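Database export, one record per block. Field names are fixed; values are copied verbatim from the stored entry.
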Amino acid sequence: MKNMKRNILAASLALVAGTAVAQDFRIGLQEDPDMLDPHRARTYVGRIVFTSLCDKLVDINEKLEITPQLATSWAWSADNKVLTFKLREGVTFHDGKPFDATAAKANIERALTLKDSMRRSEMSSIESAEAPDAQTLVLKLKQPDATLLAALTDRAGMMLSPATFTDDTAAVARNPVCSGPYKFVSRVQNDRIVLEKYDQYYDAKSYAFKRLVFRPIPDTTVRLSNLRAGDLDILERLNPSDVTQVKGDKSVQFMPVSGLGYVRFMFNVGNSDRAKANPFNDKLVRQAFALAVDRNVINQVVGENTFVPAQTAYPAASPFHDEKKFPVTGRDVAKAKALLKQAGKPTVKAELVYGNNTTTSAIAEMVQAMAAEAGFELSLRPTEYAAMLKESTTGNFDVQLQGWSGRPDPDGNVHTFLTCKGAQNDGRYCNPEVDKLLDQARVVTDVAARKDLYDRAETIMQDEMPGSYIYYQPWLFVASTKVQGFKPSPDGMIRLKGVSLK
């Protein structure tokens, strides 16, 4: 009898454990990710998918400290021009092939040489990558780089199976083969991305879910309704207008965290023939536009006081943030009109492009009305976000409302957008003096000295206005009460290690 009871108990426990492992975890995204190739991708929601799909050399924790992942340790040479990683043993890619230093070297070289790589400017200090043995990766630099480790905590440090590197570059995005806790199964554009647990992952025991389902739902009301109905387990970027009611809703968990990124207007000043006819190629017009927009009203009306007004790319938590030197510009319609008159353009006709979701649509309509009072006649073009980013690389815009999820090092918030050859400088702004200052800031390790360089570059950019920052991006997560163990992080990622459902 005792043996029978023991066997029944064991079977019950096995069934419960099996059920836990078999669970799907469903994540609601504000947009559909762009290409699932970490060397070519650029969307925030894509980074959320990559967090479960593609391990990196190093990661960051909620305190923004760099932590081991595929690399167990790292060390700099005395002159800070050689960075040596010791790699984790026993790791395989999702195709079963081993991850080792040769594979890591191939990834670094691909990120540096791929024609449309978005990681090239983040890694431009790397002169060569070497693999002296299976567990040692050596990066030799052209000059010291204070930003490189932080860059490798994101897509620059993600590792793909080199077996997928063929002349068909797009093939990687169609079927990404990485080494993370979950492997790629399928994707239906604008509907869902499905990942499945990789049982050979070195830390598979720490991941509870059999499948992950990422669902892009641009309408924030629908996204929240799906969560409440039990069709989602967690969503990112709650509409701020729903914060009050969600806080009082005992059926969900409100989990906000201050982010590292921002939302800004980017002007097309030099990309394609469209820039030549773009009224925003005149800095006086750009300055007038910035003065026509009231950041505080956007914060209060759309952001419900969660959209902290921004003047620079550095959020309040950053040591490079300086409200005294660069205070948030207040709205001044009279001055905006005077600047347009000085530019010889009392009326400006232009198109504003933005991601087609609830929050940015509300901001775009508000900005259209504000700018009209200063003399701007803005037509609005809502666009699916990944498609908008693809178009922006060709210069098919006048001004664009664009978000950036932010990086722990300040370089990650400016260099790729504002240097002449920056991979994500879609507006093609170019000032050699800004390049010089931002390049110098990569080499200097002293915080005060780096801040001086960033301040000098910022002084130029506040005048030339290649972009106009609107607010710092908060991450407003909402989860089902069944979700246990999730900790929101300032980088906005959804890390599932140790997360489970009741």
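Remark 1: Residues 2-22 form the longest helix (21 residues).
Remark 2: The chain has 16 helices and 19 strands.
End of record.
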